């Protein structure tokens, strides 16, 4: 249920790929999109984090890991893993 809420909150961000997983109280988000071009790692985190602030402050999310990639970075990462 929480995963679906997160996906709904992030739906307005232009992403090519969004994966949300949950392990007890830890949420893991992988977001891929060229919206992250020319952004610092902090700015990228903020893009994902800001729509979730209410869930975090209301303690629905206790821990979160956010990984962000441009389309090119994602392609390179996938080639390295094969």
Q: What is this entry, summarized?
A:
The protein has about 80 residues and is an alpha+beta fold.
Major beta-sheet overview:
3 strands, mixed
Broad CATH class: Alpha Beta
Number of DSSP strand runs: 3
Round the Cα radius of gyration to an integer and report it: 13 Å
Distance between the termini: 32 Å
Remind me, CATH topology?
Answer: GMP Synthetase, Chain A, domain 3
What percent of residues adopt helix (DSSP H or I)? 40-55%
Proportion of beta-strand residues: 25-35%
The residue-averaged pLDDT reads 94
- Large-scale geometry: globular
CATH architecture: 2-Layer Sandwich
Order of strands in the sheet with most strands: 1-2-3
Q: What number of structural domains do the residues give?
A: 1
Poorly predicted regions: none
Q: Which structural class fits the helix and strand makeup?
A: alpha+beta
Q: Which superfamily, in CATH terms, is the homologous superfamily?
A: BolA-like
Organism: Buchnera aphidicola
Protein name: Putative DNA-binding transcriptional regulator
Family: Belongs to the BolA/IbaG family.
GO molecular function: DNA binding
């Amino acid at each position: 249920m929480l995963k679906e809420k997160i996906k709904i909150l992030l739906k307005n961000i232009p992403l090519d790929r969004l994966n949300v997983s949950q392990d007890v109280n830890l949420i893991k988000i992988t977001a891929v999109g060229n919206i992250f071009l020319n952004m610092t790692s902090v700015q990228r985190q903020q893009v994902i984090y800001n729509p979730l602030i209410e869930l975090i402050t209301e303690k629905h999310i206790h821990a979160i890991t956010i990984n962000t990639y441009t389309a090119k970075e994602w392609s390179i990462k996938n080639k390295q893993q094969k």
